[in-house]
Description:
The longest helix has 49 residues, at 783-831. Helices cover 53% and strands 6% of the residues. The protein is an alpha/beta fold. The chain has a 10-stranded mixed β-sheet with strand order 5-4-3-6-7-12-11-8-9-10, with helices on both faces. A two-stranded antiparallel sheet has the order 1-2.
Amino acid sequence: MENPAFEKSKDDPPLYEETPFSSNGYGNGDHRSVRPSVVSAFGHDTLDRVPNIDFYRNAGSVSGHRAIRPSLQELHEVFEKVSDRQTHICPRLAKSSIHNGDLDVHDTMDDGEGSDVLPNDDLEAIASPEDNGGVVKFGWIKGVLVRCMLNIWGVMLFIRLSWVFGQAGSGLGIIIIILSMVVTTLTCLSMSAICTNGVVRGGGAYYLISRSLGPEFGGSIGLIFAFANAVAVAMYVVGFSETVVDLLKVNDAIMVDEVNDIRIVGCITVVLLLGISVAGMEWEAKAQIALLVILLLAIANVFVGTAIPATEEKRAKGFYSYQASIMAENFTPNFRDGETFFSVFAIFFPAATGILAGANISGDLKDPQGAIPIGTLLAIFITGITYLGIALCVSATVVRDATGNLNDTITPGAKCNFSVACNFGYDFSICRTTKCQYGLMNNFQVMTMVSGFGPLITAGTFSATISSALASLVSAPKVFQALCKDNIYKALHFFAKGHGKNNEPIRGYVLTFVIAVAFILIAELNIIAPIISNFFLASYALINFSCFHASYAKSPGWRPAYKYYNMWLSLFGAVLCCAVMFVINWWAALLTYAIEMFLYIYVTVKKPDVNWGSSTQAVTFVNAVNNALTLSGVDDHVKNFRPQCIVLTGTPKTRPALLDLAHSITKNYGLCITCDVFVGPRLEQQQALTAAMEQNQMWLNQQKRKAFYAAVASDNFREGAESLLQASGLGRLRPNTVILGFKRDWKTVYTANVQEYVGVLHDAFDFEYGIVMLRISQGLDISHILEAEEEMERMLVEQQALENEIEENGFQEGRKYFFKRSRKLSQKTHATKVPHSSDVAKINQRLVEASSQFKRKQGKGTIDVWWLYDDGGLTLLLPYILTTRKKWRECKLRIFIAGQPGHLEQDKEEMQSLLKKFRIKCTDITVIADFNIRPSSENWKLFEDMIEPYRLHEGSKDTAQAEALRKEHPWKITDAELDRFEDKTSLQLRLNELLQESSRAAKLIIVSMPIARKGSVSDHLYMAWLEALTKNVPPTLLVRGNHKSVLTFYS
């Protein structure tokens, strides 16, 4: 409702009409209430939005739609009239329309890419009412509690629990159960913290680990966890089949033989379970409830049976109801047949590994964040109490050894001290020498004997195995589908597709079925069982470590709603899980680690294109900040000097040779920042600059260039470069060397451009940077070629789109667009600067080849170093670094130095000694003594012709005219300047002649760079020196250090 106190005037912002942005994205006509203005809150209209959940939806949302808040540019520019400048700054505003002072905003919904999965798979999306009718979502009881209890209550409960307490005694048996509960409880606490730190989708343990530790850990554990669940189906089904075959054997109904009967029953069982699973989660849940009822009746049957007075038959088998003496005797351990505490623990612990049954179907839960913690913790508590209760009841009623013979009673007058059974009239001392068939140690069917109704225990055993198999059969495809959806293993993406309202992974079910049948047919599961247990434990360990890692990173995004966890307990849980892995089976633990490491390396190498904001990223950032701060507290030392380069590439891909050479210098061991200056008003350049930051950094990463991209907007190139030189870097991670290309077009550009370029060199020296200038005779800039290629690609795309449109709509509908679009394409074709001349094409071809020369391995050759001036050693260090790189490894160094006539040998020996102390090898040292020889007259003539357009010629004018010329053209070269620097000019020309004589075949020439004194040497004269020095020679680096030592021979 509008505020009655608000009175509109012409100066007020316009009202905003309700627009289609509130559509929920499902095409059903429903709208979400995201108001375009907040007039009722503030009393006036504004483009600002009130906080709303739709603004915070994941950009990669499966539904493909999210609300977008206005950008800062829109808030700044929205009330200006739509103009070309506004469209350039913020294209989204161009889609808005202004009518009679009213503004319609249509771009509040993100047009995300489509997805091959259902919208309701995205728990951030609001599912439509129509869809909700057919989707099955479970609460915490049916979805988590029941599944976890059924998975934890396995055959161990009825078959092996009595044996465990017979071997370990009730004292150590309690410790075994409590220790197992500690491992699972710590894991559950960690899992609860992780799953309450944001929306949880399908994938269970894989989803939790991958979103916490990243795709490397998640992808490796997800694959083996899904495989473990698939093989677990076979294990549980074989357990069920063995019980069935035992019944067939008792009733003399064996079909073929025991082994093949197990296979036959197992395959039939898996087919039935597959049918239940494929029928849908609702049917599977109903089956689980029925199995739970049977299991609860079987458990109650045990408790009831222990309270029923023992019959003579049961007494002969060692059951005497509750007796304190039996409890006392069974309290202490009695390990036999080589068993130890750890071996018995290893046998029991797999019974506790069902705690992820609920988390594995997280995508089918109504509220995974609330259901997983409470359901799993309660399941651990209930099952733990059940295990302890049944074990203690049996330990208090059944002795360890019994013969089952009714005649083994104590003869009157005979002594009996074998066991507490003597107190009840039975002498089982024969068990001391002969293995008996009954008692805790010998009879795996103690629960059946103790129970009130034996067949119900058999039904409970069936229920325990079938429920665990069914839970694993559902878990494996769900986890595997989530893994495949993320496309970490591209070859497995086929299994990502879901079917039906619940997005059921039918293909995953079939794959799980095939794996389960294969292992059932193998029928040798004793070897694979410990590996599967270790796979589950590896998942537990990583869940605990994920919680610890996220807490350790202290990321502001780590805000779990579940507060009852501790990072150090999580770390302890992870270590405990790893220890238990070795306790269960050391070689299986090693194999598990080996498989996980292999998959981790594989995913790391493949680098899947995902970014989940993992704690690994957060810890990397924290470590980087801490390391940078640590470096800031340490003074630089010459031994640790390395070139930290700021490279003036512009857009990096436009000067590939410059980038490749800088990359060869820094590689993975030094800082490399590629820089770009957007010349023009900052507001006009801001949009292009922001887009370039992300695009160019992405391009560098794709090209595997270990470099950063930095850009500034400035009114001119020099000011922008000056900003970069002053502000780049962080602490000790600051650039110390500027790398730039030679300005090849200095003779044809405006004078201001030359002054800016030389000014950057002066600024670099002022800021004490070393300078490296690269010149290639063909040039460095290939931007015009890239632009032509991009324009041609755009034309081809548009042409293809036009053809597709005509083909789809028919010529009758499409022809009205044909001539209009064809005219535009024709205009673009003529406007595009595509080289037609064969000469131009050859020049461009040579330019492209020259620009890519540093990408290739250089082969055998030389790097000629003309170390003419001592600049601190940078001129010598750079070529040495290059020779350590793989691409330059076959190149040898040749050193050229200046020497005095008559002292050539002495100068050479001194340089040899210096290089030996520096531990830098070279193939040859050449001492040049004729630098002072005047260059050829032809070179002089060429040089004079080159600088002629830039000379003032004030010597031929009178004083007044000369003064006027100086004021009018202060940048020109004066006659006095030429005379004053004639020797230096002569040196550059002579040096070029020597380069052509001695280094014409070199792969790379590195020359000490001449310095132009500020205020003394004009910019054009300095550029002429550099031009004359480097013309007609192989690729040349002009290098000048900052005259601080970068080499030392001290240890």
